[in-house]
Design a protein that fits this description.
The chain contains three helices and two strands. The chain is α+β, with helices and mostly antiparallel strands and 68 residues long. The two termini are 28 Å apart. 0% of the residues are buried. The model has no long low-confidence stretch (mean pLDDT 68).
């Protein structure tokens, strides 16, 4: 069975998204009022959407805490 290299490294989608967003946020410091980085996460059960959450770059530390 194929194992994705990211999974083998112990990284999850949440941590990758957190790291990538944290990397770009400093580029927008002077214009925080103009840009608001956010993303939607949809949760599915049996192929149907059961929940949808919208997160912004301001609360990433609370949402994706480090597991180490």
């Amino acid at each position: 069975m194929y194992e994705h290299p990211i999974k083998r490294a112990g990284l999850t989608f949440n941590r990758i998204l957190f790291s990538n967003t944290k990397m770009v946020v400093p580029c927008y410091q002077n214009t925080e009022g103009k840009y608001r980085l956010q993303f939607k996460v949809k949760f599915y059960d049996a192929g149907k959407e059961v929940n949808r959450k919208i997160f912004s770059s301001a609360n990433l530390d609370e949402i994706f805490p480090s597991r180490k």
